[in-house]
Design goal:
- By secondary structure, the protein is of the alpha+beta class.
- The protein folds into 2 domains: about 100 residues, Pseudouridine synthase (2-Layer Sandwich), CATH 3.30.2350; about 130 residues, Pseudouridine synthase, CATH 3.30.2350.10.
- The protein is about 25% helix and about 35% strand.
- It is built from 8 helices and 15 strands.
- Strands 1, 2, 3, 4, 7, 10, 11, 12, 13, 14 and 15 form an 11-stranded mixed beta sheet that branches. It has a two-stranded antiparallel sheet with strand order 5-6. It has a two-stranded antiparallel ribbon with strand order 8-9.
- It starts with 7 loop residues before the first strand and ends with a helix.
Amino acid sequence: MRSHDIDGVLLIDKAPAMTSHDVVAIVRKRLGFKKVGHCGTLDPLATGLLLIVLGRGTKIQDLLMAEDKEYTGTMQLGVTTDSQDADGQVVDTLPVPEFSREKIEESFEKFHGDFYQMPPMVSAIKQGGVPLYKLARQGKTVEREPRFVHVFAHEITRVALPDLDFRVVCSKGFYVRTYAFDIGNDLGCGAHLRMLRRTKSGRFSVEGAVTVEELKNEDPAWIASKVLDLPTVSKLRGA
C-alpha cells in the first residue's frame, strides 16, 4: 500500500513524556504522509489510546473527537499543583485524614451525571487566540467559561491513601485533572492527578493498539496494515 492511498484511523498507545503532536510527527515520518491528525489531545503525563486520522479520515475527525472517553487514573490527595497534575508546581499541601471509603464515594458521587467544570489555566483552550497555558506561563490568570460535562460511569478501584485509583467514563471536553482537583477540594485536603491512561474512545479500545516503540521500529508496511479503513471505522462506530 502506498502511503498516499491510506485513508482511515490508526490506534496508537501513547507513551508518557510525549505530546500528541509528537505522535503525529512520528506517523508522518514513518509513513511519509502529510495529511495526519489526532482526535482528543493527551497531556504528556498521560498514556493510552490516541486516535490518529489519515487522508480522508481527517474529514471525520470532529465526529471521532465528540465520542465518550474512558480513563483509568490515580489521584494523590493532600497535594495541589498549578496544573492540577504531577507535571505542575506544588502550590499547597494538607494532611490527608483517614477517610472512610463511604466518605470518598460520597465525593465521587457529587461529580456524576451532568455538572459544570472549570477548565484549568494550564490547558490548550484559547482566549483571544492565545492558549491558556501560554498565559499561565506568564503568571497570568484569566476568566474562563465553565464547561458543561457529563460522567456516565465511575468506579473507585483502589484506596491506598493518599492515593485513589479510579475509572471514569465521560463526555467530550472533560478534564480528568480537574476531576481530581474538584474531588480533592470536596474532601477538603486538595488533590492532583498523578497518573492517567485513556482506555477507550467511543467504541475504540487501547487493547491491540500500536505502541510507540512499534511505530518507531516496525516496517512502514506493517504499520499501514494496522490502519482501520473508513468502512470498518463506520461499522465500529455503529454508523
